[in-house]
Design a protein that fits this description.
The chain is mainly alpha-helical. It is built from 9 helices and 3 strands, in the order αααααβββαααα. The protein has helices at 21-43, 53-59, 62-79, 90-100, 103-116, 163-166, 170-177, 183-195, 209-222, and strands at 121-127, 133-139, 150-156. The protein has a 3-stranded antiparallel sheet. The longest helix is centred in the N-terminal third of the chain and has 23 residues, at 21-43. The termini are close together. The protein binds manganese (II) ion (MN). Manganese (II) ion binds at residues 27, 31, 74, 156, 158, 160-161.
Length: 226
C-alpha cells in the first residue's frame, strides 16, 4: 500500500499572478512529491506500513512523522486555494465575526501570526473542542491533528512556498494568499465539523467533483490493506 501524490485541484498557472506557475511546479512536483516518496520508503516494514495517514501522524515520531505530516499539510494547503471566487458560507462568516470580530480582523491576526512565526512552519484556522475558531501556528511539520483540533484551513510559510516569487518577503506572500483562499472549502470543513462532531472531520472535503473523487479514492485506499 503506497500513498500517492494528490492531483492538484487547479492548473499550474491558475493562481497567477498571486502564486506563479514556477512556484507551484517546484512546490508541488518537487517538495510535496518528495514528502510522499519519503513517507512510502520510511513506513515500509514498520508497524505503520498499512496505516492511514492520520494514524501515522498521531502515532509516529521523527522522520516518519515529519514526512506524513508534510503530506497531509500540503494536501490541505492545495485544497484551501482556488482561482475561483468562492465566498464564505453564512455559518463561517458568523463564526469568524463571533470569534475574531470581523473578516478583516481575522486576516490581520492570521497574517501577524504567520509573519511572526520563526523559521519554517504552518498557520492554521482550526475549530477547538468548544466549537470556537482559533488560529494556531506550528513549526516545521507539526499540525493540529496531534492536539485533536479540527483543521479548516492552512497556510504554508516555509520559504519554499514564496521564495521564487517574493524572495524573503513573507508578508507580501500572505497578502496574495488571502486573495486566493478557497472559502468554500473552509466553509465545507466547518459544516462537516459542526454537523457531525463525532466524525473524523479532519479529512479535507470539497465539492469540486475531482477533489471528491480523490477523497473517495483515498478513503477506499486507506481502509483497504493490501
Ligand atoms: Mn511546502
Amino acid at each position: 500500500m503506497k500513498f500517492e501524490l494528490m492531483p492538484l485541484p487547479f492548473s499550474e498557472t491558475a493562481l497567477e499572478p498571486y502564486i506563479s506557475s514556477e512556484t507551484i511546479r517546484y512546490h508541488y512536483a518537487k517538495h510535496h512529491a518528495t514528502y510522499v516518496d519519503k513517507l512510502n520508503i520510511l513506513k515500509e516494514g514498520t508497524e505503520f506500513e498499512k496505516k492511514p495517514l492520520e494514524y501515522i501522524i498521531k502515532n509516529a515520531r521523527g522522520a516518519l512523522f515529519n514526512n506524513a505530516a508534510q503530506v497531509y499539510n500540503h494536501d490541505f494547503y492545495w485544497y484551501g486555494l482556488t482561482h475561483l471566487s468562492h465566498g464564505a458560507s453564512v455559518e463561517l462568516s458568523d463564526c469568524i465575526e463571533r470569534d475574531f470580530g470581523s473578516m478583516q480582523k481575522f486576516k490581520e491576526i492570521f497574517i501577524a501570526k504567520a509573519t511572526a512565526l520563526f523559521g519554517s512552519g504552518w498557520v492554521w484556522l482550526v475549530l477547538d473542542k468548544d466549537a470556537k475558531l482559533i488560529i494556531k501556528e506550528y513549526s516545521n511539520a507539526d499540525n493540529p491533528l496531534k492536539e485533536n483540533l479540527t483543521p479548516l484551513l492552512t497556510c504554508d510559510v516555509w520559504e519554499h512556498a514564496y521564495y521564487i516569487d517574493k524572495r524573503n518577503a513573507r508578508a507580501e506572500y500572505l497578502e496574495n494568499y488571502f486573495k486566493i483562499i478557497n472559502w468554500r472549502f473552509v466553509s465545507d470543513n466547518l459544516a462537516n465539523a459542526l454537523n457531525d462532531p463525532t466524525n473524523s472531520y479532519s479529512q479535507p472535503c470539497n465539492d469540486n467533483s475531482e477533489v471528491c473523487d480523490y477523497i473517495d479514492a483515498m478513503q477506499e485506499y486507506e481502509h483497504t490493506p493490501s
